[in-house]
Amino acid sequence: MSSVNAAAQHKAVMGPVEVARKYILGTHGSLPDLDYPAVEALLAPGFLLTNESEAHDAKELLGQVYPGWSSIVKGRSVVRIHAILAGGNEDDDATAVGGGGGEGGGVEQGRCRVLAHWETDYDVIDEGATWYGTDVDISGKKVRGFQVFAEFQITHTKVASASSTTVSASESGLGSSDEGSVSPSAEEPAEAGAARALREWRIRRIIQRSDTVVKKMGIEEAVLECRRKQRQQPAASDGASAS
Question: Residue 2: is it exposed, middle or buried by C-beta count within 10 angstroms (0-12/13-18/19+)?
């Protein structure tokens, strides 16, 4: 491999902060038209997302959760990333070390935490949308400023082939952002870049806390009443719905 090719290949490998950013833009910022293979490429084996009492692995998240959410979105969602920064390795206290696209402590240990805060706006389709597992109509609702705080646990993961699995910012097509992207140091020797290109930063866990959407939509009481009625009769199907 020439030094030029090695340097180019190394440049395409995203750092942990950029991986987290691409996930946010490619999911919350790309509804309803997610590029599922590109999002999946950001996730490590054994991936898990938790949000309070909920937990979803990659199969559930990409096969059920996001398709269900996408089915009720009209037009395209908008995401605003307010903060995203590296917070040290997983054995340390999460201490902010920089903002925007900055890298931080722990990245040389093979595992890194990235802390993020963003909000999402989206409109619900005009007809036939009901809240997950209920008959509460949400057609035409507008969600503004849906707040999310998350800790991304990101690991340096071996890949089979750097040339076939590397996802660059220009190739991924995951949303857009005005914030600067993360790139490796231009002073690193090409040989070192070629060796590191055999590994990629990927998300192994997301610990998330977010707004309550039913409150944002003004349907909390209606959903609670529907759930109460459901408990008094045979369990109804619990699929995300857009009829």
Answer: exposed
